[in-house]
Amino acid sequence: MPLIQETYESLPYIDLDISAQARAEVEDLLADELPKDYTGIPHHLLPAFPPLNLSLNSAEAKRVAAKQPSTAIDVSRYESLEVPTTTRPTSSEIDFELLEAWKTTLQNAYASSTHLHSRLQNLALLGQFGKNAWLFGNAQLENILQKIEKELIEIKEQSEELNGTRQLTQEGIKGEMDGLNEGWKKSIGRLIEVQLAAEQVKGDILASQREGAV
Length: 214
Description:
Blueprint: H1 20-33, H2 58-65, H3 96-172, H4 174-213
């Protein structure tokens, strides 16, 4: 079981921010590693998108593709009714066109009557219960808003407390981190000195061997 149970990717209260030049160099290196078309092609590890089923809206899709205006709802049946111009046939024969005109007029009259009856019912219900329903709905929305604002305040307080704890923790170990950093630098310096000395001794040995061979 490892002794280190947690790691930190950054220490913002201790580490110094990199310079603009160093940041630009890092961004250039990242851009060189990325493919040129990475913004237009999904990543190869992402699953393929399912095909779109436009069978139900094929007519609408064709209309949009053709850039045609949408057709509005036909409200002619709710408009004022027009009585057929000819009210009785000119002969004893049955006038099928006149019958069809009256049939259409009667259908529109039924639709208009049903529509007006529904509007009257809705207006009556609105006059009786509309005010209370509106006030009750506003009270519910206000209650939801108060709960959300309370949760937001709690989350902000938790975030500020967490950031304060992180800052105190990082500032408390700043001296230790600086000491470890300086010790690491000195160790690297001594290692380089040892490598240089070893290379020098190796060169001296090779020179002595050449002189002995001569």
